[in-house]
Amino acid sequence: MTLIMALDQGTTSSRTVLVNAKGEIIGQSSAPLDCHYPQTGWVEQDPLQIWKTQQKTMLDVMQKTNVSIEDVVGLGITNQRETTVVWEKATGKPLAPAIVWQCRRSTAICEHLKAQGKESLIRKKTGLVLDPYFSASKMRWLLNEVPGLSERMKAREICFGTVDSWLICNLTAGKVFKTDVTNASRTMLCDLKSASWDEELLAIFGIEQSALPEIVPSSGKLAEIENSILGKSLPIAGIAGDQQSALFGQACFDVGQAKNTYGTGCFLMLNAGPKPVESQHQLLSTIAWQIGEERTYALEGAVFVAGSLIQWLRDKMEFFQNASETEKMALSVDDSDGCYVVPAFVGLGAPHWDAYARGLIIGLTRNTSKAHIVRAALEAIAYQSAEVLQCMEADLGYPLQELKIDGGASANNFLAQNQADLLGRTVRRPKNAESTALGAAFLAGLAVGVWPSIESLKSCWQEDRKFEGTISEDDRKVRIAGWLRAEERSKKWLQ
Known about the structure:
This protein is an alpha+beta fold and about 500 residues long. It has 17 helices and 23 strands. It has a domain at about 5-240: Nucleotidyltransferase, domain 5, CATH 3.30.420.40. It has helices at about 45-65, 105-115, 120-125, 135-145, 150-155, 165-170, 180-185, 200-205, 225-230, 240-250, 305-315, 325-330, 370-395, 415-425, 435-450, 455, 475-490; strands spanning about 5-10, 15-20, 25-30, 45, 70-80, 85-90, 100, 160, 180, 190, 195, 215, 220-225, 235-240, 260, 265-275, 285-290, 295-305, 340, 360, 400-405, 425-430, 465. Helix 10 (about 240-250) crosses helix 15 (about 435-450).
């Protein structure tokens, strides 16, 4: 048996899966990961917990499946992308909490740079908008606020990295400091066309290149893990940020193919081909993957709150005990009774990029029940995604025929059908919704010869169910207009 191990380090959990040569997941293990909210709009994690939970799942999956480590020929990594970790180069000790991609604490830094007229330059070089979402402003905040950190950076004593770099550091006992092109392209410090650290961007944010990892392709024998971790040295052969990995795992290898991942947030990504697409609608241009010298680009729209909205209804509002109950609750009422939920808990992502927006529930009446609000919450996830897709089609100049979906919430049939209704497009769900982990496995497997080519991976994708739109165009327009009115009310709340 030939197996690839894939590490899937997400915002709310660390997971490890084992994938065979048919592209089937034969074993998996997951461990929850805590998020901390020390102030309004702040989100952070413990870097050591990130590593320890990931390590635990690696050991657990081997024990659960009872397979031999000799059967595992390579390891892939996929990760929450913009989350920023800083650690001591000599010891690997974290020097601050990890600042999570959702965190808005660096808003003032971004506003200051906008006032200096830096926004267009950053946009042109990186394909990104100037927003606290991305890593560079988080690094700058740490340098400003952690005593002595700036001096230590100048003395070349620290490492700044996204979660992939942090995992690689721990997997190699501190010997390797690398990131791949997809994660680098999310820092706001990387030139999109050359896939290299940019001196002008580094100067804008005051980051020394010596504190940043080496940028490498997404597939290749990139490092070796220590024998002591699993009892065998394995090549780290695939690395990609979670959304790029999901695009690859969904076999979106052709230009114009797109997927939407329903996780903590919602991320719609489209294969844009060998050249970056400059969005006219506030979407992001980013690197999809690089295999050898061949680089593929993507167009992306990020929705900050999706699955975390359902978590909030469960944990804070106590509307239900398990997220799986939401489908039945939503279907228990005919509609949301005019209720809209706008989950702008940490601002709005694409296409608005409003760090000052905040969440609201509007349209409440004496008739509104928990079921109406739950239905409105699921609809909100679909509304936000539909808005992004409309912008994507406007950038491309032609409509998409279908959308592949994945992530935990894609199992919700009400959500999937609602998405098809609001898009008026075919929505396709794979048999294995773990596209993110599969993408990392595929990238690693290509590098170590499990699969001979990208073309050979297409047969690994199998459909579970197809959803077609069932509502009229007029009904679709009315519903979307109501959503846009509600969304508008949430904007600039803190200003």
